[in-house]
Amino acid sequence: MISKNQIKHIRQLEMKKFRQREGLFVAEGPKVVGDLLKAGYLPVETYATEGFQETSLTIQSITQEELRKISFLQHPQQVLAVFPIPSQKPCSPQLTGHLSLALDGVQDPGNLGTIVRIADWFGISTIFCSEDTADAWNPKVVQATMGSIARVNIIYTSLADLISQATVPVYGTLLDGNDIYRQPLSSEGIIVMGNEGNGISPEIRQFITRRLLIPSFRQGDTAESLNVAIATAITCSEFRRRELI
Fold it and tell me: Which of 36, 63, 172, 182 has its CA 20 to 30 A from that of 234?
């Protein structure tokens, strides 16, 4: 039986200040928890209903009703685990030889989680985030990554400091950019994606060396812009496609 204090403690981890104070985050479901375990993450607490199979863990068995009390999901999925937030790796200036993503003020947890998943799919192992980007260890972000957060290094840093010193191309998606399908793209560099409403900030825009535009193929009235996660997927896909030509 799970105690009221345990329930309170887990529910508090929905808030960033408690995650930072405790150094813990919540992951749910066999897929997300399983991927974290495979990547070497070790939970400090694991709660699961009958039928969850994982012999390597010490599991506190709970009922479906108890799982609903601690879950952040509309439809809880068998298991919830509390993991230590990994120590942030040093921000290495070595950016050559591969692609990295940089997120400038991405606010929506769902967008951030989807972008982490996109980075994983396209083999981009590092995402640099501005300090005002959503917290990657928010339960909504963790869930939206569908386990990809276990394989992508997320670094919060000053993007201006990082990008201003970069010796690789710095790409940015901008409404006044050049058609991405007609521009040369390299296999190394930083791809900057901006805030949902305002795009890339003026502070970061000045450091963009390759301005890109994802063109609309509809004449006349059309959507004002693309969702940042969708734009990230299209951009990463085009970079990787060029490597195959």
Answer: 36
